[in-house]
Amino acid sequence: MESSSFPTYSTTLLYSVAAITAALFYVILFQRWRCRRGKSLPPGPAGLPVVGSLPFLDPELHTYFARLARVYGPIFSLRLGGKLGVVVSSPAIAREVLKDQDPTFANRDVPAAGRVITYGGADIVWNPNGPTWRMLRRMCVREMLSPAGLDTVYGLRRREVRSTISHLYARSGSPIDVGAQMFLTVMNVITSTLWGGTVEAADERSAVGREFRELVAEITDLLGRPNVSDFFPALARFDLQGIQKQMGVLLDRFDRIFADIIKQRRQQGAEKKDKDFLEFMLQLEAEGGDSKTPFTMTHVKALLMDMVVGGTETTSNTTEWAMAEMLQKPEILRKAQQELDEVVGKNNIVEETHISKLPYLAQVIKEVLRLHPALPLLVPHCPSSSSTIGGYAVPKGSRVFVNVWAIQRDPSIWKDPSEFWPERFSEGSTAANRWDFSGNDFDYFPFGSGRRICAGIAMAERMVGYSLASLLHSFDWKLPEGAKLDLSERFGIVLKKAEPLVAVPIPRLGKPELYC
């Protein structure tokens, strides 16, 4: 959707003057702040008057920031219109931000598009550090994302993964969009866990999955797109690029879906016997929250949005990257299949209980997340007060990017960092003992660290491990005739394959009924 053109020359001139005035105002504030403080800002490119470095931004921000870090060092700053961006690209400084000064940096500079799609920032991702955020996170982890909570809905995950395997078996020998199939699988798991809804019919499955995937892709693309409203907050009300308007259209589509689901659930009332996460939230909303923190219908919808948008694309992208990397190196794919044959057998099907007995598969997943972290810059942090990081001043309200993508490809930490080599995480190696998903080691933290670490790590681990194991155990895979594998990346707020992975599944199990 393209943003609307401006009606008159005078209106355009008015916006331009407003932009220049706002930018000069922020530049003056920064200069005054620097004069008051003894420490200087981190080094960085000078940029242009008013707009700073905005004209020079590469759309692939993670690689652009990595190149600047090689010039200016592990912490640098760049002026983005009226905002100051600070980029961190080393484990030591990441530790300062995410651990040593975690309470200060645990807030968000909410982008205009993010505020629209999350009902004013009422979700877990964009809520400021405080009682409401703690309540929302505690509620989600306790009721849905804890190991015990995930155990209770294993049947849902199993049903959807087996349904996908059956669907792929029916199309064996034909090219499959792997990412699209995995997106639909994850979407069905999440929606059935949230409110019991799935897409079952093959035709409907394809159409609905495609629609949802396009919606989520549009949302993440808009969240990652540079927006004048974010760089010149005084101009946010004008929405010069139309990004907030586009996001509002997407919100309306999701809001209608959520409203219909909530209406149906309330009509069911006591008839519904099985309690899901929506049922729990509606009960809490009816009670008004706890004694200290209110819980409203806005929070209900914002959390539904978090789960649907935040959990689908990230998980399906990781599985797609894993399959692509293994097709690039067939010996790794064969080694993973050999392990599956030894643990599961060709006359059996994969269960989630097998996953802990598949150490090589775990190494593959760790290596995928090292090379292709789902959020390469994490979600930007925002200091609630002026601070000192790496010996430099970081003003209150700065937008702080932690380039986990660059850290996990740092040649001073990783041998052959651009090489896909799961064995670097093998048992007995230093990596196996040091590098996990806990965020405690700042050489490797694909899910972030500190109090803002991803709440859905346990679910992501289970879904990626179970889905990938099932795909590899059930089928051999090859590229379509004459096709070439493309491993290039495309940056949004979520890291995607630039070109979808299309591959051909070939059944490899001993009995056809194992695919039913």
TrEMBL record:
The keyword Transmembrane applies. Keywords: Heme, Iron, Membrane, Metal-binding, Monooxygenase, Oxidoreductase, Transmembrane, Transmembrane helix. GO terms for molecular function: heme binding; iron ion binding; monooxygenase activity; oxidoreductase activity, acting on paired donors, with incorporation or reduction of molecular oxygen. It comes from the Eukaryota. Heme binds at residue 454. Pfam families: p450. CDD domains: CYP76-like. Its cofactor is heme. The chain crosses the membrane at residues 12-30. InterPro entries: Cyt_P450 (IPR001128), Cyt_P450_CS (IPR017972), Cyt_P450_E_grp-I (IPR002401), Cyt_P450_sf (IPR036396). Belongs to the cytochrome P450 family. This is Geraniol 8-hydroxylase. It comes from Ananas comosus (Pineapple).
